[in-house]
Design brief:
about 425 residues; alpha/beta; Arginase, Chain A; 8-stranded parallel sheet; two-stranded antiparallel sheet; about 10% strand; globular; binds N-(4-aminobutyl)acetamide; binds zinc ion; histone deacetylase activity, hydrolytic mechanism; chromatin regulator; nucleus; hydrolase
Length: about 425
Amino acid sequence: MEQRKDMSDSEIKLHLTFPPLWTPQTDAASTAIGFDERMLLHSEVQTKSHPHPERPDRLRAIMGGLSAAGLFSGLCCMIPSREATLAELEWVHSHSHVEAVEATSLHEASYFGRDTYANNYSALAARLAAGTCIDLMTAIVKGQILNGFALVRPPGHHALSATAMGFCLHNNAALAAKAALSAGAKKVMIIDWDVHHGNGTQEIFDSDSSVLYVSLHRHQAGFFYPGTGAASEVGIKDGEGFSVNIPWPCGGIGDEDYLFAFQNVIMPIVEQFAPDATIISAGFDAAKGDPLGGCQVTPSGYAHMTQLLYSLMKGKLLVVLEGGYNLRSISASAAAVLKVLLGVSPGEIPPSWQPTFAGLLAVSEACVIQSRYWKIDRMSLLNMQMLLSAAETKFKENKNDPRQPVSGPQAEDQPQG
Ligand code: X5A
Ligand code: ZN
């Protein structure tokens, strides 16, 4: 067995000028960044022909990109990072899960399933990721900062109460939601735009009506990882109606469909739920160029989604990094989101944006199911049904391409990508 060499601090230094640390004197209108270089120590020991997609460079790329975009000056500050305590981790995880993750620090390499690795530093990185999310959310709910961006890894949304999976050890977004509740928020929303369904987050709050879980994800009738997240999954017991799933039937979904979902299902539900705090489980693996997601969301699409939530929430927004594996895509997307948090509006959504057949299918299905629990405008429901039946005919006449835009003859003249 090869000897693993210890990484010294200097080897992981980013040599960036970070924003100033948050102090009690910091302007309450600030945006705070959560980051700690020790989260770069979590990496796969075993070297394969391809590096693991969830690798330390992801955070280096994002931090470098934000700094290069000039976003670290001015209104940003850094929140001091902190390790979550074991008691905090047990807000959402079983004692045995917390112990199993802790135990990985004794081994050079451990695995939870085939794709979820750990090294000696993974438990530390996972505690830092969780603690940083908890502190950011607490500061937001207490009004000490306006909003925040947790640049953390390992990611969290696949982590179930008792299982690590899908590159995730502890569920950072779920812990942030618990922190919001204990800081006084009565209702918390988690909106998950990672390309994968956040099965862990959904499970943790399945029967909880104080946390609304909304997810848009590639689903492919259950054939895309992790397989959960059908529109029919709406929550159980007291939490029935507090899980909202928008499952894309195929890949290639882009800005138009995401924004269509926001306008027709997500925003109406958010307005009725009226959360006291909102967490974005922000994976950037639905981004154009991502090797795992195969979707088409652009930085502008991410900016518009952030803007819709930001304008409704007047702050009280925490963005938590989940997946995202194309270094260029994730740094451009993170910069676009941070700009909105800093108050730069991406402007109006182009009125020419139309959903694709696939997008319309998923959104109208979610609308019909969710209208049992939430008021969904009858006109927009009817409109969607009409668009859908017209599109169905065209869909059959054409090449059965679910990614074709639904409306207007002008759409047919456009070159298809
Ligand atoms: C956080 C995240 C993806 C897991 C894919 C496993 N996980 N094949 O994006
Ligand atoms: Zn993902």
